[in-house]
Amino acid sequence: MTAVEPNRTAEKGALPHGRDAQHGAGMGIVLMLLAIALFSAMDAMVKWLGQTYPTMQILFFRSLFAFVPLAFLIGSMGGISAALRVNDKKGHVIRCLVGLIGLSIFFYCFAHMKLADVVAISFAAPLFITALSVPMLGERVGKRRWAACLVGFTGVLVMVNPGASLFGEMALLALVGTLFYALAIIYVRKLSKTETNASIVFYFTVTCVVVSGAFLPFQWVAPTPLDWALLIAVGLVGGLAQIIITQAFRLAEVSQIMPLEYTHMIWAVGFGYLIWLELPSLSTWVGVAIVTASGLYIIYREAYLGRRRGVARRWHSRR
Prior knowledge:
By secondary structure, the protein is mainly alpha-helical. It is 80% helix and 0% strand.
């Protein structure tokens, strides 16, 4: 799923202008939609495999075979020399740890919850990121975005439904996974000031391979021929989606393509119904509507403030 991919922050460089900008934005939108579809297909495969195989075994193949397409992404970001270069060792360790925990939790939840329910809860990530950016990044969050966060967390409570026996417990676990994903994004932001994107992608993927691989001797379940193909496909599809979404962020503004991430819910409902005859409950739909509205407001508010800061910087540079 897109919301549990901790490595998607891309080094955009200069965005195109004028007519090229319009074409780039259009292509960025197409690529974002394609990437979400691929991540959604990966989520469905993870859920299918999760009925039979341990979480760490699935995570191992997801990370190992992701290296095949990610090799091209790392090459475009400066190659192996840029990938191996480290300035903030502690930051990498923490980022890899929280990212690994978040991804593992989500893979586990896929096997025990409706696909759409997990995706819906993951939509709380922008709310966590906004709240955590204050103490961890020193960013200023105004009253409007704090209000949006409070409204969004109300929607989260509607979805999680605490106290509702097993579903409530699993939903809370998915919410914990979302928190760890948000922490991973915060650390990616911090690392981006001193580290190359190639190194951030490389070390996280290596960490996932090494840690999940350590569990294999104790949890190994021999795959069937079909499941071998699915385990390999999980990694290849996830890695390919990573490349595509990276290119989308290079071509278009964040505010133009981030709202498209909410189409993930459409795919989750579709895959869930076609494969497992799953449909989200009314409380999930109500909660996801509230969280989506608050998340969209936060995205557009940040874009608006970013444009204002850009205008202010240009005005001061002319004085």
